[in-house]
Amino acid sequence: MNFAVSSATVLSDLAILEFAGVDTPAFLQGQLSNDVMAATIDTAMLAAYCNPKGRTLATLVLWKMPDTQNNEPVFQALVKADIADALVKRLTMFVLRSKVKIRRLSTEAIGLKLESGNTAANVAVPEVNGLNLGALPDAFEPYRVIAHPGGVSIAAPQSQPESQRWWFIPADTHPTALEPNANALSKWQTADILAGLPWVEHATQEAFIPQTLNLDLINGVSFTKGCYPGQEVVARSHYRGTVKRRMTRGTAHVPVEHIASLAGQDIFDAHSAHPDSPAGRVINAAHDDTQAQLLLEVKLADMNQAQYRLGEPNGPVITPASLPYSIEPGEQ
């Protein structure tokens, strides 16, 4: 099937971090939950950055760039923009004598949605400088990396098999002329939620272990690599089967102007013996033009019989919805 771009969105809620220097692979291997040593220039990976207690400070999409002219490794990563500067500062504290430079790039990621040529034929999409659509494959594989003359594209998880999503990362020499669009950004964030892709933002830092975000179910955690901050806690929860909370999806009727404040907000279970006690919390939220799409942290034991309410015991009803992968109770 031939695909064409049906939308191009400035992802102003995300930032791009760059790690460069001869010690970069070893440094990242000692900081992140996934096996950075297995990274190639053809495949990106999902990972968590945790504190020593195993609580997630950030979720990242990480990929390897071509080495510099001095043969120094370079990695780049997508993170939520509201935690990017703090992450650079914190990670730089642990560089010590390692030869690694960490910086936030000034360029912004672009979200590309591709649909069949017939579907996208009548959609006017601004040109994205440096993007070679011919390089994007028809066969879609999440986290595949494709190089272009003016940047790289990374395949984003997608819940709709008839379309594709790509993060396009422009090179500094190919700035985009696209303007931010709040409605288009909300649609992209909704697609992240439908795909079951969690993003840790400022409101939810240190609230979850990686398994609570299902990162172990979507290839964001390696249990065979070496140590990293929080590794003992993450591994113990995995091998002892003590993961009691998971991420699920739900919908609620919430005004669009309230969406930005939902991340980290408590949810309540009207069927609980203690309905006034929080039963979980919101991980991410977006509006799909009709209702709020939510990623939620909940107790596995309550998932199938709970009646969740948003924000307060009598708050908006949260209707359960499915994810594109299994989160069966007890699955490790």
UniProtKB/TrEMBL annotation:
Protein name (Swiss-Prot/TrEMBL): Folate-binding protein YgfZ
InterPro entries found in the cross-reference section: YgfZ/GCV_T_CS (IPR017703), YgfZ/GcvT (IPR045179)
Top-rank lineage group of the source organism: Bacteria
